[in-house]
């Protein structure tokens, strides 16, 4: 019942507040200094833009649909890693990427009379989130976790403040207050762990772990929003997951050969 821009603003403002409480006592103002400010700015911009589009998508689409489209993330990361990270991709991985794209088409159903234009919000989220993971990998070992968290949340907070505050509606129940207080904390600790993981492993190896969200999305959709996944969503999701798992297994096999 709250405006989308208010929710996104609170998500980043809470993230920024908690990040300062966690890191400033340890590192002081040096946590604000970036070794690669332009890359850090672009990473923050991708995360910010993807989050805004995702909340707009959730306003019109079931959470199972937005999550399933997000499952194509490993596929997009694989494609973007070729020109940006210089990774080499063989014909088998390209075939798996094409198969995953077919799964996205099955979920979106552009031929259907029930096609919702809001799915373009989810597709935009998919692209921007993939770029965020690529940039996170590029900054691994260059920036500390503190700087990455403060920059990504701080820039978004400043950019959203005029819009979020202009449409502000005070919550009218305890549950809404609790959600607003916790959403920033979930954002902070989720991204802290993502950043640490990208220091230890390649982006293409970590990407398929997003598929664990299918269980949470289905559970939340049924128990909280009373929405069940459609046959098209299940079929498309299965195709996307199969292609992503194949890419992941190929990466693991190659890593073992190199070792």
* Gross morphology: globular
Structural class: mainly alpha
pLDDT averaged over residues: 83
Query: Would you identify the regions where 5 or more consecutive residues have pLDDT less than 50?
Result: none
Helix content: over 70%
Oligomer state equals single chain
Largest sheet: number of strands, sense, barrel closure: none
The first-to-last residue Cα distance is 53 Å
Strand content: under 5%
Question: How many H/I helical runs?
Answer: 11
Strand/helix succession: HHHHHHHHHHH
Radius of gyration: 19 Å
Number of strands: 0
Which keywords apply here?
globular; mainly alpha; 259 residues; 0% strand
How are the SSEs placed, and which strands pair?
Elements: H1 4-27, H2 37-60, H3 63-70, H4 73-85, H5 91-108, H6 119-139, H7 145-166, H8 174-200, H9 203-206, H10 213-223, H11 231-258
Helix pairs in contact: 1-2, 1-7, 1-8, 2-6, 2-7, 3-10, 3-11, 4-5, 4-6, 5-11, 7-8
Summarize the structure.
The chain is mainly alpha-helical and 259 residues long. It has helices at residues 4-27, 37-60, 63-70, 73-85, 91-108, 119-139, 145-166, 174-200, 203-206, 213-223, 231-258.
Structure in words:
The protein is mainly alpha-helical and 259 residues long. It is built from eleven helices and no strands. It has helices at 4-27, 37-60, 63-70, 73-85, 91-108, 119-139, 145-166, 174-200, 203-206, 213-223, 231-258. α3 (63-70) runs parallel beside α11. The model has no long low-confidence stretch (mean pLDDT 83).
